[in-house]
Specification:
The chain is an all-alpha fold. It has one domain. It has 14 helices and no strands. The longest helix is centred in the middle third of the chain and has 35 residues. It starts with a helix and ends with a helix. The N terminus is likely disordered.
Length: 290
C-alpha cells in the first residue's frame, strides 16, 4: 500500500469536514454578536438549526419519538442547550482564538472521564497527555498577559465549561443516532435545546432594533446555524455512530486550527507567541490521549 493510500485510509472525511466548518463559527459568531445580543443570537441559531434538521429528516419518515428514547433524548438535549449557551456567552467574552483552542480539549476531558468512571483504564501516556494539555490550556489563558487574561478569564472558563458539555453530548448522542438516524437524533436534541433557550431570549429579542442589524451580522448568524451547525453536526454525529466518540474526538484538535485561520482573515486576530505555544501543547496532549 502506498503512503498516499495509507493516509487516505487513515483520514475520515466526515469528522474532518465538520471540524473545518466549525472553525468558521468563531469569527461568524463574533460578527453576529457585534450587533445581536447573546441570548437572541443563541436562541435564533438553535431555532433555525432545529427547523432545518427536521425539514431534511422529515421526508417520508415518521417524526414521532419513541417513548423509550425520551429520557436519553432529554439528557442529550440539555447537554446541547448548556453547550450552546456556554459557547456563545464565552465567545462573547474572550477572543475567537482562545475560545477555539479551549474548545479543543474535549478529547482530554473524555479520556479523564472514562478513566474516572472506570470505563477505560488511564495509561501513563494518557495521564501525561492530560498534564500536557492542562499546561497548554494555562498558557492559552495567560497568552495576553495578566491584565488581558483577567479580562478574558470569564470567557475562557465558560469555554472550558462548553467543552465539558460537548463531552456529555457526545457520550449521549451515539446510541440515539443508531436508533433514529443522524438528522432525526440531532434535530430532536436541538428541539430540546430550543425549548430551553428561547424563553431566555424573549425579553431581549422583543426590545432589539432588528431593522438596524447589518447583513454581515445576519450572515454570521446564518452560517453558524447552517454550515456551522446543521451540516457540521450531521457529519459529526454520523461519525460518532460509525467510529465511536473516542476516535471521532481525535479530529476536534483540527477545529481551532481552522478557527485561527478564519479569525485571522475575517477579524484580524493575530495569535501571540504564548497562545501558539499553548495551542501546540494542547494539541500534543490531545494527540497523545487518542
Amino acid at each position: 500500500m502506498t503512503p498516499l493510500k495509507r493516509l487516505t485510509g487513515w483520514i475520515h472525511p466526515q469528522p474532518l469536514m465538520a471540524a473545518v466548518l466549525w472553525g468558521g463559527i468563531y469569527p461568524g459568531a463574533k460578527l453576529g454578536l457585534q450587533e445581536i445580543g447573546v441570548p437572541s443570537f443563541t436562541a435564533l441559531r438553535i431555532v433555525l438549526a432545529t427547523l432545518l434538521f427536521f425539514a431534511f429528516s422529515g421526508r417520508g419518515r415518521q417524526l414521532a419519538l419513541p417513548r423509550s428514547l425520551w429520557h436519553p433524548m432529554a439528557a442529550a438535549g440539555m447537554s446541547q442547550a448548556v453547550l450552546q449557551v456556554l459557547f456563545i456567552t464565552g465567545l462573547d467574552r474572550t477572543t475567537a482564538g482562545n475560545s477555539a483552542i479551549l474548545l479543543s480539549t474535549p478529547p482530554l476531558m473524555m479520556a479523564g472521564w472514562l478513566a474516572l468512571t472506570g470505563r477505560e483504564r488511564l495509561t501513563a501516556r494518557q495521564g501525561g497527555s492530560l498534564l500536557l494539555g492542562l499546561v497548554g490550556v494555562g498558557l492559552v489563558v495567560q497568552s495576553g498577559g495578566l491584565v488581558l487574561a483577567l479580562s478574558h478569564l470569564a470567557g475562557d472558563l465558560l469555554s472550558l465549561g462548553a467543552a465539558a458539555a460537548w463531552v456529555a453530548y457526545n457520550l449521549g448522542i451515539g446510541p440515539l443516532v443508531g436508533s433514529l438516524g443522524t438528522l432525526r437524533a440531532t434535530g430532536w436534541t436541538m428541539l430540546v435545546a430550543a425549548v430551553l433557550t428561547t424563553p431566555l431570549a424573549a425579553a431581549e429579542a422583543s426590545r432589539h432594533p432588528w431593522s438596524a442589524v447589518s447583513w454581515t451580522a445576519w450572515a454570521g448568524l446564518v452560517y453558524c446555524a447552517t454550515f456551522g451547525m446543521v451540516v457540521a453536526m450531521g457529519l459529526w454525529n454520523r461519525s460518532v455512530h460509525r467510529l465511536g466518540p473516542r476516535q471521532t474526538m481525535i479530529y476536534a484538535y483540527l477545529e481551532p486550527v481552522s478557527a485561527l485561520v478564519f479569525a485571522a482573515i475575517l477579524l484580524g486576530e493575530s495569535p501571540t507567541t504564548m497562545q501558539v505555544l499553548g495551542a501546540l501543547l494542547t494539541f500534543a496532549g490531545v494527540w497523545l490521549s487518542s
